[in-house]
Batch of 2 targets.
Target 1
Amino acid sequence: MADQIHFRKMNGLGNDFVVLDTRVHDVPRDPETIAAIANRQTGIGCDQVIVLEPTSRADMFMRIYNADGSEVGACGNATRCVAALAAVEQERLSVRIETAAGILPAEVGADGMVAVDMGVPRLRWDQIPLDEEFHDTKRIELQLGPIDDPVLHSPAVVNVGNPHCIFFVDDLDAHDLGRFGPLVENFPIFPERANVSLAQVTSDDALKLRTWERGAGLTKACGTAACAAAVSAARRKLTGRTVKVSLPGGDLVIDWREDDDHILMIGPYALDFEGTLPEGLVKQESAPL
Ligand SMILES: N[C@@H](CCC[C@H](N)C(=O)O)C(=O)O
């Protein structure tokens, strides 16, 4: 392991990332080190750690780890950040980013906005995945609170490279997502756990969203949750297929295209600072005998 490991600190609408690059030097990937880097008290602090790797199929491969050290398939906000890095590297505005969930084409605008083709949503119960069969994933039988007067019920579920569960509510602020988010994340119906969101439709082309992220907790924004909520709102005919999604960290535009069913996510990215990982944060490899 190299002594000095360079990192970039980036964010998409306040959803923040430590970005490491295996193409420059060997980087740690064990869950303990990832969690130590992500720790906001003792590490650098972030929602996700992103590890860049070489690939022959796209401009870059991004591996995604949650703050708890778990590896996942998709992160919308980080994809915009990585697309911006790839555009600088490749000296062109159209780039392709490979993830564990597939290759995502992206367009980096001169205005600091990035449009990412997040692919086609997976809607079948076994693609979410759920551990029991549901014919209609727009509204599954799941509720929180008393049987005859549930506080929240009938969420939509979608997989956009990662699993999402979305409760549509009249008032986002009336519910304590920090309290029930971790419960729903770990419900046995979600064998791979789930990202949990509250969505409030405010017009036929706008919604407000708050997300409890699997493996990271409450975040200022979640790009894949915005895609999942937009698709679910359109499937329920609460909105059209193009919506502005307002998150605590700012707005994304999501367009679930009619012609090919792909989801286009448009939003900003930012590079906050660069540095090297402090000594002691990275688990030392044992010395050869
Ligand atoms: N912040 C992300 C999603 C990151 C992964 C998620 N927590 C999961 O476990 O699936 C985004 O912007 O999409």
Target 2
Amino acid sequence: MKKIVELQAVTKNYGSRKALHNINLNLEAGKIIGLLGSNGSGKSTLMKLAAGLIQPTSGTIRICGEPIGIGTKAVTSFMPDQPVTESWMRVKDALRFFSDFYKDFDQEKAGSMLDFLKLDRNDRISSLSKGMNERLQLTLAMSRQAKLYLLDEPIGGVDPVARGKILDAIVKFYNEDSCVLISTHLITDIERIFDEVLFIQNGEVSLRQDVESIRSKHGKSVDELFREVFSE
Ligand SMILES: Nc1ncnc2c1ncn2[C@@H]1O[C@H](COP(=O)(O)OP(=O)(O)OP(=O)(O)O)[C@@H](O)[C@H]1O
């Protein structure tokens, strides 16, 4: 299986605060992976490092075999936990903006996703509810033909019914040559789409397992295992 992400001995400190410590990790294509951990455990830091938005304090990161740089940013699509669009835009302007900015932006895929997620191209972004805005941000992120999708809390603001719709969209529109890394606290809602999960605790990966074996070997859901491992 093709390696998409490789982290070797990656440590990230913010001043004297340690966010990640000596992470060694390979993530392969064809997987949707859950990045799970309590508040402040280092999930967003890991995503920002892979997206090339911040630099590690030590260690090396490669995406599709290349060190972080222009080449890796071209194949990495990051949906941060804050919207990346301007409020004056309409939905269609956001699509045009992404299409101008990213060579790999697939307008046709974006159009299908908008329809699937029931977004109107003429709506002003400022008039969208938080949940509708999340649908738009997800459409923008998933419509790139990337190798690595980093989705930071993609369903935090949406109601339980809409969550199902968004998860269905991720599964439907993701391509098998890529890897999707999703951070979330809403494990029960989202675990059905994960192939694997990574538990991150105090800046270290404490567990990595495929979801099927959590169910068959441990007889537990991911949420149950998470609560057990992270009980305070
Ligand atoms: N820009 C920053 N400056 C200083 N410390 C930071 C910065 N960003 C994150 N941290 C610290 O690094 C650690 C990991 O933070 P991070 O945001 O990666 O956690 P997280 O798992 O995404 O948390 P949450 O689930 O609350 O979003 C925390 O102790 C946090 O306070």
